[in-house]
Amino acid sequence: MGVRGGKLPLFETKVKKGRKWYKLYVLSVLLAISLILVYRALHFPTNGEKGRWAWFGLSMAEIWFGFYWILTQSTRWNPVYRHTFKDRLLMRYKDNLPAVDVFVCTADPKKEPPIMVINTVLSVMAYEYPTKKLSVYLSDDGCSDITFYALLEASRFAEAWIPFCKKYKIEPRSPGAYFKEPSFGPDDGLLDWMDIKRLYEGMENRITSMANSGVVSDDMRKLHRGFSEWNGTATARDHNPIVQILIDGRDRAREDHVLPTLVYMAREKRPNQHHNFKAGAMNSMLRVSSEIRNGAIILNVDCDMYSNNSETIKDALCFFMDEEQGHEIAFIQLPQHYNNITKNDPYGNSFQALKEIDFHALDGHGGPMYIGSGCYHRRESLLGKKYDQTKTREFVERERDYKSTSLALEERAKNLITCNFEDNTQWGNEVGLKYGCPVEDAITGLSIQCNGWKSMYFNPQQGGFLGVAPVTLQHVLMQHKRWSEGEFQILLSKYSPISYGHKKITFGLQMCYATYCLRAVCSIPTLYYVIIPPIYFLHGISLFPDVSDSWFLPFAYAITVTSTYSLIESLEVGYTLKGLWNEQRIWLYKRLAAYPFALFDTALKQIGIAKSAFVITAKVASDEVLKRYEKEIIEFGSASVPFVIIATVAVLSPICLIMGLWMLLVVQGVGLMGSMLAQVIICGVVTLINLPVYEAILVRQDAGRIPTFVALISLTLSYVAYALPLD
Ligand SMILES: *[C@@H]1O[C@H](CO)[C@@H](O)[C@H](O)[C@H]1NC(C)=O
Ligand SMILES: *[C@@H]1O[C@H](CO)[C@@H](O)[C@H](O)[C@H]1NC(C)=O
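Above: inputs. Below: predicted complex with 2-acetamido-2-deoxy-beta-D-glucopyranose.
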């Protein structure tokens, strides 16, 4: 990249090499897919032959798989990798860095313990960035005085914590995560370290005991005028707007070690008023922060996503402030990591391929999606402004209002988060985050891109944000159901990337969005493929070409080559072999037991019934559950429809395999084996991948096993499938 006006760029972009082989691979697989479809068309069973419908279904499934496979190549086509030069940024802009507002959302003090929330808050307060330019806002949709109390404690602890972090350059800057590491702190600061550790543990004890008791004691209430907000009958669903500035960064008396501004807020709630969940909270924060500090750059994180890298603000600014390309960038998305992934990751929580490949490819097409957390935004673009090429952009700081007192600021801010504020405005539509879709972050990101902006993906070596991954299969499936459902609904909404994005974003990016939006649809052909061929095998009907037939080749080629490709790719991005095998299982379970419900619920919604067959449980993780999680034992545990589907498929395939083989060997004759090989392989693979299910039914005695009741239903269903007359 060249020099512009004598200035070196603030970031560079690398394109992946060795693409010739990849292109050859794609072309050859495309050829195989076409041949498979030709085979299906040419060999359609004639009238009177068995398996006409099954054949038709398989052809449909294969058409879908082929089409979807082509779509997914958009997430492999042209990955790019970004690297930043923070030293150049500092040299050039040391005194002219923009103000940054950090938004943290929390919604429920029971599910999101206040101690976890303030650890996230402290980690973002301690960013390696001029404190007077940093503000942190906590939006509490639970309107909990315990969360407020915890934040008050955090504001005091910050006075010791932030100087400590900066003096010894420690990482990570969530005190909870930092002190969990069995290290002994910095060599030269052992005494400081012990002091701070003591302070932290004192605070942690006070907060957890307060949270356990459920009330804030009267002594504590006297500590801060803010508690008076809870004097009336404030409940989570019915309360006045609250804005409390706990640390006012304008405080000149503390100029020497100024702390970042820290604000607690809870928007007004009334029982009969819709509040639009997290998008509503984000929009409230956008308005409150505009009154208080109005930072040009906004970072938003979930309350369980602490910052694991104190440098990422500067990284993000390297993009936004780059003289040549910066002006068109709306947001910088960082990947989300988890701090409790076990070695072989039985639930596929690490999303390693998504983080290391997909998003780099999206970046190559003009911009990753906004995934709702761990993202730096340009305020302007989030507010719905269109990108205007002719305008030069500088981060001019608005003159700060030093005259108003904190109290006056709070009062003005409260007026911006009343229930009625958004009535007859464009908030939730043209302005701010969009309302009315379960994955509001994705459509918000898409509409920003359609407004002409670019986004970029930044994946630093030292992960930027660390959260907590789900530890039970039920919870994992629920999460995927919610995502795939939301994404599917985008496709049906007016924000469909196909129509809305037409000519506004690149075709490649449209394909990427379509890949995610159509995930749910993959459930039907997958279900078909793991159920129908085994049953037909049991009845001795072949649905695939004979091994000796040359039509067998395209099938064999497509399967082995795509599997080998993804094997190599996965090992490259850090999967273990066992982890990769686990990933295949989760891939299957998502399609069997999460996506179908996404489709089903969307269909119900379309005809106006909003009721789900999916059992929703709270995210409770007892010690027992955690112990099994650490041993990588899959947690089934409850008798719900998704598990019935999984168990039925798992029970069906070995039955078909054994009885089918017996038929073949004893009744029909081994000679037919060649024509059945493909079906034998399908049964065999599905059986192997489900080994943990048989263990959970037959061997395990713990609470995470599959209940006998579920196993019996599955057996019955399998029998029904067997006994049904075939066409
Ligand atoms: C994983 O997350 C759970 C919260 O669901 C937490 O309690 C547990 O300690 C974590 N496990 C590990 C190994 O970090
Ligand atoms: C989090 O930060 C630590 C350094 O404090 C680093 O060793 C670790 O790899 C980071 N975690 C991730 C997931 O990147």
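The chain has a mean pLDDT of 91.
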